[in-house]
Structures
1.
Amino acid sequence: MAPMLFDDSLKREAKPSLKTSMNMITTKKEVNKGAWTAEEDRKLAEVIAAHGPKRWKTIAIKAGLNRCGKSCRLRWMNYLRPNIKRGNISDQEEDLILRLHKLLGNRWSLIAGRLPGRTDNEIKNYWNSHLSKKINQKEKQSGGSTREATVNNPKAERIVAEKVNVQIVNEENNNTSTSTGGEDSNIGFNVDEFFDFSNEDPLNLEWMSKFLSSDEGFSVE
DNA sequence: AACAACCTCAACCGCATCAGA
DNA sequence: GTCTGATGCGGTTGAGGTTGT
């Protein structure tokens, strides 16, 4: 299926930058860089529709794009993929990002995994341009530090990351099942509830509060 | 109107990890 | 076990847009 392409919501017209233009002039044989054109997007989407989103180097060649595979992958993941949600981050999403960041730190791909339709790049950008400032302001106002629970606690950080990974893998495995999913027999807690912050489930809060209140401790063995 | 400062976000880069030979 | 290519991730850059003076 063709993804939603070239719609009016796309903020930026794909224009080659000055740098890119210079590249095109001076380095004919080198790969194309810079902004993607609508034509490139179309070609890429066609090839991916036919062959699937893998073997990016081959895709780049098949599409006749003078791009590296990496660039094609990035373009697909952040822009052309179906179900990409565009537009403003909602308050709920923002809240979730804040909470997940507190737990995970800059694990953007993991955080994005909990926000359907959002890309890691988008969340990273949103964090850098909006949320980091908000947090700095809060810190200044409160005078204290809202130190991340897992910072300086690599063990705890690892455990959280692993839990999130398990959750995402489970979801992928359960995607075709009729189950509402989330039950995880290996780690002994309901992983869906674990991340259902909107419900403020007491179990989540209990678990999280251990993290969020642990400056020194939260011993994980 | 003109310019500077700031903001946003697509895209690149370097590195780490994974998978297959 | 080692090598190599593919893939994924986070940090950073810079073009273009917006806002302030």
2.
Amino acid sequence: MNFDEHKPIYLQIADLICEKILNDAYREDERVPSIRDMGSLLGVNPNTVMRSFEYLKTIEVIYDKRGVGFFVTPGAKTVVKSIFKQSFLNEELPLIVKKVKLLDIETEVLCNHIREGLKAG
Amino acid sequence: MNFDEHKPIYLQIADLICEKILNDAYREDERVPSIRDMGSLLGVNPNTVMRSFEYLKTIEVIYDKRGVGFFVTPGAKTVVKSIFKQSFLNEELPLIVKKVKLLDIETEVLCNHIREGLKAG
Amino acid sequence: MNFDEHKPIYLQIADLICEKILNDAYREDERVPSIRDMGSLLGVNPNTVMRSFEYLKTIEVIYDKRGVGFFVTPGAKTVVKSIFKQSFLNEELPLIVKKVKLLDIETEVLCNHIREGLKAG
Amino acid sequence: MNFDEHKPIYLQIADLICEKILNDAYREDERVPSIRDMGSLLGVNPNTVMRSFEYLKTIEVIYDKRGVGFFVTPGAKTVVKSIFKQSFLNEELPLIVKKVKLLDIETEVLCNHIREGLKAG
DNA sequence: GTGGTCTAGACCACC
DNA sequence: GTGGTCTAGACCACA
């Protein structure tokens, strides 16, 4: 898998997993792949995957059963969604608006771009 | 000043300066603040400011007169605008669209947010 | 049952059994629950219970009759008590004292806590 | 430095630093030794020290200035003390009391031990 | 098999 | 110089 150069891989893996949870690819109380499997799957060192999992554990998106594996925390989907939504609307969106204004991008042009992107993807 | 945790400070300073240029706060052939002033203003090491300026020099947004200071390159505003626009439309926008989709944010709700933001700010 | 995060489960189970012996809940030459029962009771893998029992066997707190089960060793209560007492006085107490000092907890306040705890429980 | 066998080194280092803060060995907004220095000082790998610092950062006992080092968070002493005190009184003490009861240790004998320990250390 | 810790060492970006 | 990330590989405890 290809990772973005300028963001730590372990955070990108965390994002990946959050996405899968939002996508219902990983459901609540379901086991996520083992650190080793994930590592070889993504072509990264297990330690790096471990860091992702550690991080996700601290934000309570996953929990672990010792000797068994990591599992999606019940309620994680809702929580992740709301956190992401909050941060998007309160932090990212204002920056986007600011940029749009600065760059003199026409609102309706932008909205059309978004609409098309949503249809397409 | 507060900087984003996960982005080099020198790039954030560069962004800041570009913004000012787009804002007409710094006009062409006008002098930008000295490295020293900028540093103490932002609470960062002058070396860090220096890196920003070097970076801006390589992308030809500013130029320097030795012993005098740094100045905005003529035409910088147009160039910066087009660079930013490109990167916004090609790189940021797709990510935004992806996120919006993932978070089940209604397109029209989003567009309204943007419209309002533009009116307000 | 909930286990402490940072101590092996099998040792915590061993502690549990020692407690029962000190409590006279399990008496000498009496059978302790089967590995299977203990496992489902505590919600842990039978292998983990097995390890506890093995450990207790090596320190001669229990012994096994093959095909029958595990039994409390005669004299175990005395032995366990003295082991625990030693380790409490020599290892735990100094740490407690150190902590109390570090946290500026008044000696008499602490002693009162202990006295009350003993009366209550 | 010697570490306890059965507790992760990185947590022991974290404890060490908390102690120093409680001791006023490290004061608020004061810099703690660099990861590398700490590593060679304690005879552990810098990565291990890093984990300690990471942990202490998440619980907001220290903060970092990029490229400069780690510093004690203002208010850390008070916070650490109160957290430690709470956990001692609510979690550890009941266990101690339980053990004391189980082992038939005389309250006054115990209290004397504590008093002496406090005088001595 | 699982996760967890640790080491060694490299390389990077940043100050 | 600082912290941060990543790899490789070892070893351990645990289920």
